[in-house]
Amino acid sequence: MDIKTGRFLVTGLLILGSVLGSGITLADLRATYVPTAIERPDSGRPGSFADLVETVSPAVVSISTRTSRVPHSMGNSQRPPTPGTQRPVPGFQGNPEFEQFLRRFFGPGHQAPGPHTRQRRTVGSGFIIDAEGLVVTNHHVVAGADEIEVVLADGQILPATVHGHDRKTDIALLQIESDQTFPTVSFGDSTQARVGDWVIAIGNPFGLGGTATTGIISARGRDINNGPYDDYIQIDAPINRGNSGGPLFDTTGLVIGVNTAIYSPSGGNVGIGFAVPSEQARSIVSQLRERGVVQRAWLGVHIQRVTPDLAERFGLDRTRGALISSVETGSPADKAGMVPGDIILKFDGTVVNRMRRLPRLVARAVIGDRVEVDLWRDGREITVHPQMQPTEDDTLVAGHSPQGGEGTVSLGLLLSALDTESRQRYGFDGDATGIVVEQVRPGSPAAEKGLQSGDLIVQVEQSPVDSPAGMNQLLNSARQKNQKALLLLVERQGHAHFITLGLT
User: Fold this and answer.
1) Arithmetic mean of pLDDT over the chain
2) Is 18 one of the catalytic residues?
3) Is 170 a catalytic residue?
């Protein structure tokens, strides 16, 4: 017996001795001690996505378009780059090997994008939702295209036409020009998707069709400043230029999103992609399929965010809802009695926690229906029932009013009455009423709030004003009541918004 073995035996005897000395027998020990393996949480990831990809891939297509004239340059755009947009790739322009690559995937005669290119070719992705050849993709993939070709998973190249499109949600529906029957995929329910769920993207990045990538849902409800209906699913599954319009699958093989954009300073994937949720895409596709256009419901209000100081001023317990800054004459909101200063808390039974949620709720309302809208007015909740109407221009579905900054000290304003000269100077309509902001003292709370020369103060404390003297009376009255702030309704370029100015 070596020293190590001896140590082991001694240690074992000591342990056994302590057990026997306590009155516990070996039989008891065997009966009570059951060795268990360390339990690890299930990752939820299958061993392979191969079966799923094999099943759905036949319904995923590559899209190639040709445009005879190059549109206006987007070089100065601050929007996040979109995967389907064909732009110069740094380091490749003028490279013979890259030119060969382009000819291989886009056909003879293709030229690398450059300042003298007279013909634009773009690539994108899509997926078939109907056996007769209806294809969902992004609007920006096919916008302005003179020719559209769809490449099937088996390599067939077929012409296609635009059945309908919706620029505001970046969704388009194509019709493949063929009598054959096509494999399809179906929309799933994106509302059930959770942050952390596995997703699979299949598409045509850089012309490399049939490419599958996986990742998770990183976030939901993302606003990327693409429009009033932004409600993107953020994913980390690698997508690149050419993935635009392709499907985002859940692990059951249902489409829960349409891959639309990436955030990338370099133009390549950095793990931040965005997809239109199927909840939104399905509704848009249904309208495009039925009549080729999208018709949204119209409420007819301009709204702004409820800031902490505005919430306090209007007597709300917290920052919530959407504050109405103006109401379009003759609109459903106007007919229902909604007025500036109302705060929309619920729309058709859905709580409006954030201002930006309202336009999407209004847009999805059924035209002709009377919807229930809960408002906060004069310190209490009331309910109105506007009847939804269609509109060709949905700017006022629930448009956004400009926002001011923060400030809490003195007014810092030089005001004048609205007269003929000021109407001409600032371009006010003949029926405009209020007082004109001539100057704003730099560094004052009025300046910090964003007030500027040419603004029109329409109301003070929700009372109309038509002279600086009238405003001073309301100001003095507010101070006598020991109010902390003064509520103003300010109009700029035809749009009104509320602000609060602190009183000293």
Assistant:
1) 79
2) no
3) yes
